């Protein structure tokens, strides 16, 4: 199967379903939530959404878009650390309701492409000039998937030119 930007979330979840729950990626970070993950995780933990955000979640910003992810427990002077939901036996304590990016997974045959798909669909905002500029810079040194080139995201050349020349300001 060819993974493209417009592949549906359900198809992507089936591609990424081969997670072996080894806990490796969870030891160095955590996956971003979609909005619908918040009530699901809060209900599972039997706490309010406010408590969930305060106790267990933190902001992550990529390509000028902010989302939430489980807090990272960082060692002193280290940028990375383990996810707050990773148990001592390396299992996820919220496995059945874990964040969308965790459910998609990031290893296996489609690993890198799944990460790109998530970034394209949930962090890169074609209506936000700053997000477009950051994605353009990123593409100088990174691959993308079909539908993820900058001219796919902003097909109008004049609009793209203005965005890249900073003549369009951030709209958020
Ligand atoms: S996504 Fe991969 S690295 Fe992460 S827990 Fe699953 S099998 Fe391990
Ligand atoms: S929520 Fe679970 S699957 Fe996601 S990073 Fe944390 S421990 Fe890993």
Q: What is the gyration radius calculated from CA atoms?
A: 17 Å
Based on secondary structure, the structural category is alpha+beta
Query: Largest sheet, described in full?
Result: 2 strands, antiparallel
Characterize the quaternary organization of these chains. single chain
**Average pLDDT score:** 91
Bin the helical content: 25-40%
List the ions, cofactors and other small molecules found in this model: iron/sulfur cluster
Integer tally of domains: 2
Secondary structure tally, helices: 8
| Termini gap | 36 Å
Name the helix and strand elements from N-terminus to C-terminus, one letter apiece: HHHEEEEHHHHH
Strand neighbour order, sheet with most strands: 1-2
Shape: globular
Number of strands: 4
β-strand percent reads 5-15%
Low-pLDDT runs of 5+ residues are: none
Question: Could you list some keywords that capture this structure?
Answer:
172 residues; alpha+beta; two-stranded antiparallel ribbon; 4 strands; binds iron/sulfur cluster
Q: What does this protein structure show overall?
A:
Helix 2 crosses helix 3. The protein is 37% helix and 10% strand. The protein has helices at residues 9-15, 37-45, 49-56, 100-104, 111-122, 129-139, 150-153, 157-164; strands at 57-62, 65-70, 72-74, 81-83. Strands 1-2 form a two-stranded antiparallel ribbon. Strands 3-4 form a two-stranded antiparallel sheet. A hairpin with a 2-residue loop joins strand 1 and strand 2. 28% of the residues are buried. It has 2 domains: 1-16 and 105-172, no CATH class; 23-104, no CATH class. By secondary structure, it is an alpha+beta fold.
């Amino acid at each position: 199967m060819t993974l493209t930007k417009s592949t549906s979330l359900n198809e992507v979840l089936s591609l990424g379903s081969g997670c072996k729950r080894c806990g490796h990626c969870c030891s160095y970070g955590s996956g971003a939530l979609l909005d619908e993950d918040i009530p699901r995780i809060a209900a599972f933990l039997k706490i309010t959404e406010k408590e969930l955000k305060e106790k267990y979640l933190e902001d992550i910003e990529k390509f000028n878009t902010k989302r939430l992810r489980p807090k990272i427990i960082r060692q002193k002077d280290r940028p990375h650390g383990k996810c707050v939901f990773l148990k001592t036996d390396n299992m996820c304590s919220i496995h059945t309701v874990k964040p969308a990016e965790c459910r998609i997974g990031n290893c296996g045959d489609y690993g890198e492409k799944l990460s790109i798909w998530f970034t394209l669909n949930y962090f890169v905002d074609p209506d936000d000039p700053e997000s477009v500029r950051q994605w353009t810079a990123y593409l100088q040194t990174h691959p993308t998937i079909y539908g993820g080139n900058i001219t796919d995201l902003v097909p109008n050349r004049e609009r793209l030119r203005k965005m890249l020349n900073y003549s369009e300001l951030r709209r958020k």
